Amino acid sequence: MSSDSPMSLSLPVVNGATAHDHEHANDPVGAMFDEAAAQGDPAEPGYGKTYWRSIEEKLQTPEFLEAAKGEFPVGADLPPTGVARREFLGLLGASMALAGVGTACTTRPKDEKLLAYTKTPESLAPGIPQHYASAINLEGYASGVLVRSWEGRPTKVEGNPEHPVNRGATGAYEQAYLMDLYSPHRANTVKQGGTGRAYRTFTEELTARLVQMQADGGAKLRFLLGPTASPLVAHLKQRIQQRFPNARFYGFQSVSRANAVEGARVAFGRPLEASYDFASADVILSLDSDFLQTGPEPVRYAREYSARRDPKAQGGMNRHYQVESHLSITGGMADHRLRVKSGQVMGVLSAVAQALGVSGAGRAALPQDAQAWVSVVAQDLRRAGQRALVVVGERQPAAVHALAFAVNQALGSLGTTVRTHAPVLLDASAGPDSLEQLAREIQAGQVDTLFISANDPVYQAPADVPFGELLTKVPNVIHTGLFENATSRAAQWFVPATHAFEAWGDGRSADGTVTLTQPLINPLHSGVSEPELLALFLSEPYRSSYQLLRDAWRGQTGAVGFETRWETWVQSGFVSGSQAAFEQAPVQADAVARAVQALSAPKAGIELNFVTDYSVLDGRFFNNPFLQELPDPISKIVWDNAASISPATAERLGLTAGDVVEVSYRGRTLQVPVWIAPGHADDALTLPLGYGQVAQFNYVDVDGPQTVGFNAGALRVSDAPYFDGGAELTKTGKRHEFVQTQIHWSLNDPVPERFKSLVKERPVVLEQTLPEYEKHPGEPAEHHRSLPADQNLLPAYQYAQTLEQGYKWGMAIDLTRCTGCSACVLACQTENNIPVVGKEQVKRGREMTWLRLDRYYRGEVADAEMVTQPMMCVHCEKAPCEYVCPVNATVHSEEGLNVMVYNRCVGTRYCSNNCPYKVRRFNYLHYTDGKTATERMMMNPDVTVRARGVMEKCSYCVQRIERARINTRVAAASSGDKSRGLIRDGMVKTACQQVCPTEAITFGTLSDPDARVTKLHADERAYKVLNDLGTQPRTSYLLRIKNPHPALAGVKA
Amino acid sequence: MSSLLFPRWTNTVSRLTAALLLSLPAVAIGGLMLYVRSPLANAQSHPVEQPFEFDHRHHTGDEAIDCRYCHHMVEESSTAGIPSTTLCVSCHAQVWNKSPYLAQLREKFFTDQPIPWVRVHNLPEYVYFNHSIHVNKGVGCVTCHGRVDQMAAIYQKEPLTMAWCLECHRNPGPNLRPVEFMTSMTWQPEKDPGLRAAQIQDLTAKYDVHARTSCDTCHR
């Protein structure tokens, strides 16, 4: 075939051996590949096979290649199995409706009722949502939020922009917490011994009992509270102690910061809590600390930390060293990461301390290869001096915390980046081991009445404290909670609790700011708030939580001017200026040295690590389907927990992912499924807590109570609640199937073997080191920014050039800032009415979340680094999805939005197939069907609830754009001031942007040259994903900058 | 020779039958297309029975109460608003406060029960209509709702189909009026074609009218 003869339309078969080593005389496809390969820059960083999403992908196993072949995972389009009762009833109803068609001559739908208020509540405007400042107390620390309410229904949680900790952002838990309010499985009945009782019966019985108890001052009265910093609870506690001087209060928290507070007590002689200033830290050494995601104030830390990840940040970019056993979100952001067992963290810190000349630093037990690493780190810390920061995770023993304070003092950073204040929590020393004392008292028969408001101590108690059995010895146990759990079943009395948005209350944020909890709705399920229950013990006339709160604060701050103060507090949601004062104390070196000396050396053998889970925390969110279905930020596993193990250890033990092993530890055994985690320390096993409970979930394939995951707590003991060596693993031969979203929606199709040498993998995430950036800013991004105009044959549409002409919506996502915290995923889900589908559906690739976080590993399997890339519809100007839609259901707006018209969609799925970004989601089943009345209340009325057979995807929160447009245009029309008619920068925020703690997502109009998004699009780091396809996406990504230490370039750690 | 079996007229019958059968699909399709465009399919001109015999003719016509007295959200919200019972009672505590005709209203008010009004103008759930932007840009009540002051029971005057919406969104000028006449039922545009064209131009410029036809204007 000569080169000018017409080419065949069918692809010629390319011979693998000859495809690239001869001149392509008769091989046009091969020639095209060669040309494509020649046009790219082979030296370009970010190119090549450096990124991988799973170990299977890295190794290109046959299973991976098979699974990655199709658009959807195997079984994605299978119909649901079993008798679908709902569907049957639906058909029955439909046929009856059809039968009735003949009788009516109009297609007018069934009459819809309009129910007006008898008296419209003050300030309520139907059709206009209202926002109220409130707070959510997570692990005892208040998170200041603004809650959006539609005619009395809270539908969305945002961060309170004025709150000193939140400043407009929240984490993932706050977003999902709204689901708890509307959960159909919330407890709704007061129960005695499992049978329903009137609340009045309960109060009368309790009051009678309390009268008898008063004789001995409540000697047998005990309280077990969860972590709380509430001044109101403190006030009630004090009042109860006045009435019952012999009563005792205990605190319990499955995973607490007690070790950190104890460490401060050792170092400073009194219990203090550390507060870190990441905004002014140049060099950060984080020892097993996941400060970006867990802990008291991850939102503030993430924001301040990421502000310094910007290469243009004032003071320069920070450098972050991480020492940890399992890859965490914080570890994924680090510039250098040393993986060691949790027990070896002390050894690493000792070595750093020794290098810095801290006395009493203890034995520097370092793993091999780490010496060079540690000396560089120590040198870098010393160079930073008082702008260095050493932070220790709450799982580490008190001695490590104490030594870290000594190191910070030696560096001069104590008082600058590390400051201390009095603990905010009422019982800061309450931890997993604090049940022991109460257990002893119960054993001795010293407890007659026990009030439990801690979440679920029966389930969360360490395995050596049989708390559930002990409860049977207490005649009168009262438990309160949102959901019935193991503790409720063991208690005589159970009282349903109120959700944070159902009752008044208060709390304190990690910095001490007093934050008020304002209700937005009456209790949905006759719940009673904790303050009201505690007030019962005073046997006073009933006061509502509102009265209790106001009375307590009036008593504390005086009646003069109280109303004005109160109005201000409620309006802003917090008491400004109520931060805890910083107290500085010198480190007592000999006390630290003694504590370090007393710490026993880590045990040999497999080390067990008990950690909180990114989804369910310590089990508190087990009932929350949003969080259950939220992929783990690292492993991407949903509806499950997994015992993580390093690839090397797995190989040594002959394990593959999904193998069930039996863990034996101190005479206890537990069977757990193993997950092979890149970047995990060798000879260690990470066991996330919180799973293995039974809960009620109702999804398409799931109906009724079910267990999810395994209970790692069954191996946990009081004297080693966080990690301990000496465990043994035995392979059982059983298998467990994990469901994970890791390899769904891949942007890279596997390349057939014969084309491998011709085709380069497309770069999806780009990275640059800071020295490279300083020399050639954003060099890898250059090829991915814009295309020559003639490269696309489709006619160009003339979008607005100036703000006055119109809008040109666009987004920028900074990969340097994104930690992968997943708050955006849940914010998108609640804002856009995206359903939860259940484990079985996710397995088939039917997850519906519009925004996914792609996690890419880089480098070797053992020491993998991680990049997270938020991926949702990028709103291509030349959108491939639009050309293939046969019914015009996805079209372009004149502002460049790729809009989805649900009522036109017939469900061909061609668009999804043609989308190179894999961001379209199809409603295989009617996921929003069968929702209970309360679940329906959660829906955002501004967004259509999609039905079966409809395609959907990110809309750039078009409902928010349209609302802002109408508001501004109405404001301009009614005021006559035309300049008010334009949406200015910052007036529209997408849900993901608004929630983002690190401000990684920016949205706005590219027609405004002063808009932040326009500036970011013009940044040298900006690039477009899969730009070579000519899709011209409106979302730009800013490549990730890492700031490695030059001396560590060759050091393997 | 004529056949005994098939007389001549059967030819006509068979031809007619064949023609009828052949045209049946076309007639059926055409009929359906006519039907969906007819007021019948769009629930137009169908007075809706309400739980109360509330008469707009009396309130709007005779008493000349402005629409916004009751539907007071219309200028700021997506919904015009259904008045609360308190609003009804605020007048009817003074006038007709003993009328047996309003016994039901008083009962609803004193028992704090909502009045179950039946919705007349019902758009599908995937359509997001906003009143405030329309009335602020000079589209009057009467344009979409008809002469409410002449309706004994409210009915849907216009088809409320997408084609009908687009007709105006493509050329909003003829439906504009000065906002001060927004609620007027009797306002008339200029009769003279030249003056009318100038009026439309004026109003479009004055209210900065840019009716959009992108799908996301109404569908989200």
Give your account of this protein's structure.
The complex is a heterodimer of chains A (1053) and B (220). Chain A is an alpha/beta fold and 1053 residues long. Among the domains of chain A are: 164 residues, Dimethylsulfoxide Reductase, domain 2 (3-Layer(aba) Sandwich); 134 residues, Barwin-like endoglucanases; 273 residues, Alpha-Beta Plaits (2-Layer Sandwich). Helix content of chain A is 27%, strand content 19%. Chain A is globular. Chain B has 220 residues and is mainly α. Chain B has two domains: 32 residues; 128 residues, no CATH class. In chain B, helix 4 crosses helix 5. Chain B is extended, with a radius of gyration of 25 Å. The model of chain B has no long low-confidence stretch (mean pLDDT 90). Classes of the chains: A alpha/beta (1053), B mainly alpha (220). Chains A and B meet through strand 2 and helix 30 of A and strand 1 and helix 6 of B. Strand 2 of chain A pairs antiparallel with strand 1 of chain B.
**Main sheet properties of chain A:** 7 strands, mixed
Helix content of chain B: 40-55%
Alpha-carbon distance between the two ends of chain B: 74 Å
Low-confidence stretches of chain B: none
Summed up, what is this model?
Chain A has 1053 residues and is α/β, with parallel strands linked by helices. Chain A contains 32 helices and 42 strands. Chain B is 41% helix and 1% strand.
Task: Label this structure with key terms.
heterodimer; A: 1053 residues; alpha/beta; Dimethylsulfoxide Reductase, domain 2; Barwin-like endoglucanases; Alpha-Beta Plaits; 7-stranded mixed β-sheet; 6-stranded mixed beta barrel; 32 helices; 42 strands; 19% strand; globular; disordered N terminus; B: 220 residues; mainly alpha; 9 helices
